[in-house]
Structure formats: structure tokens, C-alpha cells
Amino acid sequence: MKITQFHHSLWLIAPIALIIATIAILSEKATLPIKPNLDAYSFELNLPGTTDRKQLIQREIELYQTKLQQDPNSGMNLASLGNAYWKLGKATGEVSWYLLAEQTANRSIAILPFENASAKLTLAQVAQARHEFKIAQNIALDIIKTKPKNDEARSILVTCALATGDLLSAEAQAKIIVDRSPNLNSLTLQALVEEAQGKPSSIETFRFAIQTEEVGEVGPSALVRVMLGRHFYNQGKLDQAESLYQEALRILPRYPLALINLATVQTRRGQYAEADRTYDQIIAYSQQSTNIYDHTVLRGKARLKQLQNQPYNDLLQKAETLLRQDTNAGHATGAFGHRRELAQLLLDRRQNNDSVEALALMQEEIKVRQDSQTYAVLARAFVANNQTPEARKAIQPAINSGIQNAGIFKQASEIEQQLGNAEQSKIYKTNSQNIDPDFERSLQSSQIDF
Asked: CA-CA 20 to 30 A from 147: which of 109, 192, 234, 309?
């Protein structure tokens, strides 16, 4: 079946909560989850780049493990170890490190239940990664009660507010952080809020954030460039987007988020071989355990094969398997909140009862996440189930947020067209073209038969 509504901007995953936070933890004796067998696809292992950052974090982990051998009941050392596990999870995307971070933080709190903001922050980040936004918010608020100047806790409030569509709260919390300390992290958060609100000032705020970066801020420096690159990508400015992604990769080689976004640019340009090699680098970076980007890589590779009229169902099936594991709370890796991504896959494929299941998934997801992208996917699910009036209601909060996204306005235009509202459909279509003049042509050239 030909799907004409395969929006680049909706397919690209990068949820803000997952970008900025992810975590978890097991005991040292536990068995880590095994990475699915992807060897059949001949991923290249000897790729350019360095793992210096990964090695630095691993040395930090070894340091705290040594300290804990000397004092196994040190709550502070456990908190520091949990934070190091979290940083390694963020650097590699490997779920096992998130799981280790969570369990270590819990052990730390069991020993040191008071004045332990570090361990609590790790737990808040885990909850956020699992899309348990209320839990994450409550932990952050608890920290702020005793440490009102804890900007990390307040940052969690910002990202949770973004994920739940509470842009006014996100704006207020970001302002507190920026007013207190206008640095790389706080300004990046403010730029993300402005972007969600559709404010033109977001570009300058991103650039200002880059100007304030300091030596040693490797991860945040790479992240802000990916976020600004994504902003340009959504405007169809592919050269500027690619330049920023490449700059992020020079700062942090093999950074999965930069590679995913770079592959999306290459796919849109029709550079399929280059995109395939870019996806390979993500797999090559982590071979030992489940990676939070695995399903995205598999979906991207399936998309490339489909665009080249090559078999792709086996890759898509592997992506679906991983997504179903991630949405199953009882699975070994825990539930890392990928209902929306699973729904998107089902909507792209649309076989048997895929559309019905996708709608059910999105009706559950909207209860916990109310950002513009979630509303847009919910609207897609309604359209796929011939519930166009409901789709119109679902897309409206995304439009009302102010976000400037060509895909969302194109989607709204199609919904209005189906309802016979030609004038409103034309307005939305014009908005889409104003944001990204090349969106329509690139969308047509990337149609996928599922």
C-alpha cells in the first residue's frame, strides 16, 4: 500500500525527554540484556572516530567501583557511580547502562535517604526516559524543596513540561535557570522551549548557547548543534543542518543522535549508500547490549531498502520486535516508552489490523505525553481508521502550540481537504510551504509502499 503521508519531520524520533535524559541499573551480578543479532547485515566495525569519551567515563566508573570495594556502604560513592553509568548510557545509547544507573541510585538512597540529590536526579532521569513524567516531576520538585538552586532538577521540570505540552511551565522554569546562569545547558533548554512555541528567536538562542560553551562540555556542545541542525532540517535547509551534524560529530565522534539526523538528511537527498553507512556507525559503536537507537536504525535501513525497491520486511520486523519489547514493562530492559514509535511503524506499514492497534497505542500514549508530535501521530492514527473529524481535533493542539513544522501543517491541510474545507486546507498548505518550500517535492520522492 502506498503511503503518501510519510512525513520526514514526524518520522525523525528525537523526543526531547529521551535526548536530554535516560537511565537505569542492575546489580553487578545480574545478566545484562543481549543485543539482537544484526550481524547478517554486515555492519562495518572498523569505522573512523574515537571512543575517548567512552573510555573517560569507563575510567570514572572504575574509580568509583574501586572506592566501593574499600567502602561498600558509601551512599555518596554509589550515587556518583550511578551518575557515571548514566553518562555512559547517554554516550552510547546502551540500555544496560541505564538499568545499572537506576539500580545503583536506588542502592545509594537505601543507604543515604537524606541529602542525596545526585541519586534522586538519576532516578528522575530514568523515570523521564520511561515517559513517567509525573514521577520525574515529583522527584525534581522534591529536590528543589531543599535545594531551590539545583538547576539539574529544574531542567527535568523543563523537559517534562515540554513532553506534556505545558509550554508555559516549561518557559517559566527555563527562565529561572537562564536568569540564574545563562550557560550552554540552560540556553539550550530555553531554545528548545522557544522552538516548541514557534518563536523565531529560537535560532539566536541556540547560537548564543554555542557561544557560551566551555572546555570540557563535550556532550552538551554536540547536543546543541544537533538540535539547531534539526531546526534547520525542519525548514528544508539541508546544507546548514548537515554542517551542524558534522560539527557535532567532530566534537563527539560516533554520537548516535547526530548520526541518526545525518542519515535522515542523506535519505532526503537520495544519498542512500551514504545514509546506510551512517546507520552502520551507530551499530558499530555498541555491539554488546540493547541500544535505544536500534529500532530507529532498523527502520531507517528498511526505509532505504524500500526506496531502492529492495526487500525490507525482515528489517522492519526486527524493528517491530524491539519496539514491542521496549513498550512491555515486564521485559528485561524495562519499558522505555516507545509506544509512539511503534504506532508510527504500524501506520507506515498498515497491514491487517495495524491501523487499529496504532490508534489504541496512541490513545494510551496521549494520556502521558501531549507534545505536538504525539498529537500529530494520534491524528494520523485517526485518519488511518477513517475518523477524520477526530483527526482534526487531535491535530489542533499541535497547530495551536505555535510550532513551525511543515509536516504538521501539511497533515492538517490533508485533514481539512478530506473534510471538504478547501479554504482552510489551502491556508495550512501555504503555511507548510512557507516553512519548508521543498517539503512537498521531497515528500513525494520519498514515498514508501508498505
From this structure: 192
Bridge partners (DSSP) listed for residue 98: 24
Per DSSP, 331 falls in state S
Domain residue spans in the chain?
338-450
Residues of 126-139 as b/e, b for ≥16 C-beta within 10 angstroms? bbbbbbbbebbbeb
Task: Give percent of the chain with pLDDT exceeding 70.
Answer: 82
Provide the whole-model pTM: 0.82
Q: Which helix (H) or strand (E) holds 2?
A: strand 2-3
Query: Cα separation of 176 and 193, whole Å?
Result: 13
Average confidence (pLDDT) over 152-168 = 96
Angstrom distance (rounded) from CA 310 to CA 442: 20
Q: Is 387 exposed, middle or buried (0-12, 13-18, 19+ CB in 10 A)?
A: middle
E-strand ranges in 158-207 read none
Signed CA dihedral, 372, 375, 381, 384: sign only? negative
- Top mean pLDDT of 84-98, 326-340, 425-439 is at 425-439
Phi, psi (rounded to 5 degrees) for 23 = -175, 165
Q: Which of 8-17, 331-340, 383-392 has the highest mean pLDDT?
A: 383-392
Query: Which letter does DSSP use for residue 4 in this model?
Result: S
> Distance (Å, rounded) from C-alpha 15 to C-alpha 104?
25
Q: Is the pLDDT of residue 323 over 70?
A: yes
